[in-house]
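Exam prep: given the inputs below (a chain plus glycyl-adenosine-5'-phosphate), describe the expected output before reading on.
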Amino acid sequence: METPDLLEKVTNLAKRRGFIFPSAEIYGGFRSTYDYGPLGANMLRNIRQAWWQSMVQTRTDIVGIDAAILGPPAVWAASGHLATFTDPLVDCKKCKERWREDKIDGVCPNCGSTEFTEPRDFNLMFKTQAGPVEGEGATAYLRPETAQGMFTNFANVLATSRKKPPFGIAQIGKAFRNEITPQNFVFRTREFELMEMEYFVPPADADEWYRYWIQYRLDWYIDLGIPADQLRLHEHEAKDLSHYSRGTTDVEFAYPWGFDELEGIANRGDYDLTQHAKASGVSLDYFDQSTNERYTPYVIEPAVGATRLLIAFLLSAYHEDEIEGEIRTVLRLDWRLAPYQVAVLPLSKKPELEGVSREVLDILQPHFMCDYDVTQSIGRRYRRQDEVGTPFCITVDFDTLEDRAVTVRDRDTTEQVRVKIGDLLASLRERTNQH
Ligand code: GAP
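Solution:
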């Protein structure tokens, strides 16, 4: 498939089937802002869950938090974001469009002109006011990264969780950046969801942990079905590092426009804890009683946008194949990510069939996200489920009333097998490797 075509197809599918809608669409939309519809909301939850499971639930060295989105200027002054979280902004002298200088290779994407104003530093943080009285004391910022919540809570978490380095604090939540040029659907938006983990380590071990987390995160994508040849690692040169970073490696994904950033893994050194300790006057050192040593931990940080991931998973899963002489669209999503894992489809709207379908739903719904669809021919209903990546369709037909068995159809092979209703849950658990 031509790759620009792929982005268009996935974008169309996402809108047509209720993954992603332009925000405030009835008012003409709002500045590259998007809402997640019924399927997108399910899939985002699954992405968060898969990340949380890998980063928190299955580990004893990482805990989660959920910090505030609004923050005082003091946090962002100490973190360096007020001074340096900027992009170089230029105006095209001919058509007056504004661009991020480092993204346009000296040519205006709108009119082709090569004449621009001198670049100015444009701060990406959204500034607002907390409370009804305006003025300096009321200034607040929407967080541009969730990470600072982990640093400002470092001492609280240390005191309450009984963890000691190496240990991590993870968080999933909204972040806001006033991007100069949002682009490529939900790849770069002004409001997005971040999944970040700050891993605090003794300074001498930082490089080892940095390598560990790069590999751990790469493996996560492969485990969730992105083919290894669609992923690569890109280590930043020193001149491209963020103000806090001693080393950053991106996991890049093969988007239709070429390899580009999916996730960043950074060695933030002791930058953040040192800055916050200095600015707040509160010590953020760690005292190791076993060695009698006091030190400021270094931080290794894997950070990825859940919303950016959603589009990457959709692009990677999108396939067109031929079934019985017909082209079908199928999302080969890992079952853990699919918006619905199961669709229950009574062959007709007869009340007896709907009654048994209800029984089947009662068995499966506590364990799987299930769709229920009674309209159109069964063939068309299979195609609709394939198109949104539902791994299993369960058809309830008239034989079901006699033999108490249903047909289970596999999305990828289209193979159909007959399974007793009583064995259905065990059968689906086995097929999804949940023993
Ligand atoms: N705390 C580190 C940090 O925020 P970053 O590289 O600026 O690092 C981390 O962002 C990740 O967040 C990126 O790799 C990307 O997945 C996602 N991201 C960043 N800006 C985004 C945007 N405007 N829209 C969607 N996702 C974004």
